[in-house]
Amino acid sequence: MGKRFFFTVTNDLVYDQRMHRICTSLAELGYEVTLVGRKLSSSSALEQKKFRQKRVRCWFNKGKRFYAEYNIRLFFFLLFKKMDAVCAIDLDTILPCLYISRLKRIPRIYDAHELFTGLKEVVSRPGVHKTWMRIERKAVPKYRLGYTVSESIADEFRKRYGVNYHTVRNLQVLNELNNIEPVEKFILYQGAVNEARGFEFLIPAMKQVNCKLVICRDGNFMQQLKQLISENKLENKIELKGMLTPGTLRQISQQAYIGIALAENNGLNQYLALPNKFFDYIHAGLPQITMNFPEYRKINEQYEVAVLIDDLNLQRITDTINNLLEDAVLHKRLKDNCLLAREKFNWQQGEKKLLAFYQSIFAT
Q: Which of 34, 89, 102, 123 has the greatest CB tally within 10 Å of its CB?
């Protein structure tokens, strides 16, 4: 029997591609893996996977009461399960896993998908930021084993708490491209529709762009996004597709002409992160416009796959989009570089680091 791992998140599992990849890779190596999340009234049915999935239903679904309730439910769920290691995904599940690992005397791992205390929605609310910083200072130093999505975030954890975390990037599985011919040119935004993603600049910029914008997924900024679209009278130029399955999203990304991923330099997480959509666009052979932040710049210096902009300026965004729409030579160069980069930056390569990390935990 393989070692039994439990992974804990606060989402409903269906759309968490990073965790699907991680859990699948470990399950294929022979580990018994269980991914635990939460169940909402709107949750879709779970697809059959090579690992176990469990969703916990809560009375509260947002705010402090949700986090308190979910953490308590998660603790008691884990308490009665047999496991050889437990992995907390981000700060919002870190405390139950800490207490469980102590009670069961098993290894604990921290998987930081982001610098949680550097999120704009956390930083901009002093009381909330203070609470999460207290949790981070209490728990992270006690997790000597861990990994995160970028070298910059790993460096930040090292500076703060002296922990040496590995980097396991948000890479896609390398699959063949479908070569679907698009009916019309369109710009794609995929990823969480959250604060600090630059929508306050991107939406009005679209008034001067002769192209459609398609936005996929949902998030805490969705109501403000709809209001921005209405205020700028762009209902006919911007399409909101909502939450999509990973397979449907891959099809749409391969039909797009440009991918876009803007972010405010407001909150350290945005500046240091390397989110999965950056690599999703690369895997779709999709030239993108994104920020001139350290992790993007580092990869763009190896393979020019993106046009980088220094800040969120309305006219600069408009001009950059229009230039990439009109410059066929630049577009082709970026697209060709994406096809080269995807051969290096893929999960078949990335999972090697992940599997070596987990094997080292139980090495005799």
A: 89
Partner residues linked to 212 by β-bridges: 186
Tens of pLDDT along 274-303? 988 999 999 999 999 999 999 999 999 999
User: For the chain, which residues make up each domain, given as ranges?
Assistant: 4-171+347-361, 186-341
Alpha carbon distance 206, 322 (integer Å): 10
- CA–CA dist 332, 340 (Å, integer): 13
DSSP conformational letter for 302: H
Q: In CATH, which superfamily holds the domain spanning 186-341?
A: Glycogen Phosphorylase B; (3.40.50.2000)
| Cβ atoms within 10 Å of 2's Cβ, excluding its own | 12
Cβ contacts of 296 within 8 Å, gap of 6 or more: 274, 278, 290, 306, 308
Report the predicted TM-score, pTM, of the whole model to 2 decimal places.
Answer: 0.90
Rounded Cα distance between 204 and 233, Å, is: 9
With tokens 């703060």, the residue in question is 160
Fold match between domain 4-171+347-361 and domain 186-341: yes
Record the tokens describing residue 305, joined without a space.
């796959």
- The type of residue at 322 is N
119-134 pLDDT, tens digit each: 988 999 999 999 999 9
Q: Which two tokens stand for residue 84?
A: 């050889």
DSSP 187: E
Euclidean distance between CA atoms 147 and 3, whole angstroms: 19
The yes or no reply on domain 4-171+347-361 and CATH 3.40.50.2000 is yes
pLDDT digits (tens, 9 = 90+) for 64-110: 999 999 999 999 999 999 999 999 999 999 999 999 999 999 999 99
Rounded to whole angstroms, the Cα distance separating 183 from 31 reads: 44
Q: Which residues of 337-351 are buried (b: 16+ CB within 10 A; e: fewer)?
A: bbeebbeebbbeebb
Question: In sequence order, what DSSP letters do the residues of 21-71 get, joined into one string?
Answer: HHHHHHHHTT-EEEEEEEE-TTPPPPPP-SSEEEEEE-S--SHHHHHHHHH
